[in-house]
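User: Run a structure prediction on this.
Assistant: Running it now.
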Amino acid sequence: MAWSGFPVPLSGFFADLGRLSVVFDLAEAVETSELTGGEILCASVGPRLWQGSVTVLPYRSAALERAAARLRRLQDPDASFLVMPPHMQRPGQPAATIGGIQNGRELRLNMTPGATVRAGEFLSFSYGSSPVRRALHQVLQDATAASGGLTPWVEVTPAIRPGATVGAAVELARPVCKAVIVPSSLSPAAFMAGRGNDLSFAWRQTLR
């Protein structure tokens, strides 16, 4: 099936790739200098972005080449795809919206009374226009929605970027960010007797 546009949804790329090993982390965005006394000075040099790598584990040659064909298309400058932390899916998690934002670091969720988000879980939402961007955050504290549906204030990382709005829909079950393949990171598989070894690539979140 042809891709109708970018970013490619999860179902359009990851659905039938077989066994995957995925690294998912939040990059630092700091510049450092060390003083003679050993003190390390840090300064922010831009937004912190999610990044990682994906390895398609040894598999049949045809399946690996199918994955390689998709990756070669995603190496083009106009291409992007959605990626999620696969180990933190929460199928069946109720719908939620942003109920409040403060300090650029904290938000409240409006969700089903009694529903809970836990420290370490992820959430995502769209913000801005031309282009619409996708924010992905990790929750730092447990929070349970009160009888009115609002949770207490919870801190998230990375910082909430300008453009996020109260009322925006929040994805809790399958949170995603928009990503691109890091140039020159694709490592193709080697084949023997109808099977291939690992195929891997690195990815990085994009705000474009």
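The chain has two domains: 10-84+178-205, 88-170.
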